[in-house]
DNA sequence: AAGGATACTTACTTAGTAGTAAGTAAGCAA
DNA sequence: TTGCTTACTTACTACTAAGTAAGTATCCTT
């Protein structure tokens, strides 16, 4: 919490967080260890403990950063100024990127399966993350239906929950059955949400 | 492999498998151990090894049994004789049961997150399981659209993949956000698949 | 030059993991 | 009753996990 942390400290801290996030999304919270991170980083496991004393704090830091990123991204002018279909497409791109970039699932998909074994702090933060994402998408969907650029039945919140659930699941499917299956599911989602003219 | 295995042996074997499956669906493959099973069963961990020498064999046995159950259920007269919407409803009931019965996810949802850390045998068996289930549902959807009892856009196989992905994800959502969210998603699914008259 | 903070390493503890080897009690079959 | 099989227990190996305490090299500040 010093006014300006030394560059090396910051670098290692960030690199730990990056690697931990990568391992978390690839293997799940219970299947990655300080040893994995240390080996990849070329340091000793105790060095990780120096930056993140416990795995709980490390895991919480991953979720917190994703939440910060979500808020920042969501509020970016180049995102807020898009039309609802474009905002939806921007969201889909995030998942497309994960599907293409090794078999990574999304944060929710990675943590939900292990949810009951997670520290309470992480459980709560994941709820917040998922809740805010759903809330944002519900707003996008509602606006899109109002201006006729998106179509769907039911409440925007229910539809947002369904779409995000499908997206989370689709990355798990990509891992098991390959990327092709993932794109089938995404095409299906787009077909249904976009009116005949745009689809 | 004797003609008639002693009753006690069979019982313990089955009880191990039942408990292991329960633990797997609740905590994931990497977060349950022979100790958990042994403790719940009132025996020593080595007794589990006697029946299932390795965790890989135990895990494979769980997937194999689910696959046997799926095939048996799918071919049951009381299932094959249902109309497509009734068959869909029967499928949804399986997920509703899991959602209500503690926070259990489905087999796919439990294993997909840990997929990269699973023994190759289990990976292959999960692919078979998921593939057969998708194939079955695609048939149901195709029949339903033909006779007008179900509605959806796109190929039946893509739609089946999407629906099953949503269902797998919805159980993970139930675990994180509670059962209510799960029912929102299911209602959304039903609304979209059933024509206005039946919905 | 001295002191202190930073960013580690070395060496350790504790606990949990899968898995194994040897022993044993109970039942059954010849 | 002898001997084999089943279904375990006891006691262990080997390994990995998270976490800690103490020591150290490097840098920055004064």
Automatic annotation (TrEMBL), chains A, B:
DNA-binding region range list:
33-52
Does the keyword Mitochondrion belong to this entry?
no
Please state every residue range assigned to the domain named HTH tetR-type. 10-70
Which InterPro entries does the record associate with it?
Homeodomain-like_sf (IPR009057), HTH_TetR (IPR001647), Tet_transcr_reg_TetR-rel_C_sf (IPR036271)
Q: What top-level branch of life does the organism fall under?
A: Bacteria
Q: Which GO terms describe its molecular function?
A: DNA binding
Name listed for the protein in its UniProt record: TetR/AcrR family transcriptional regulator
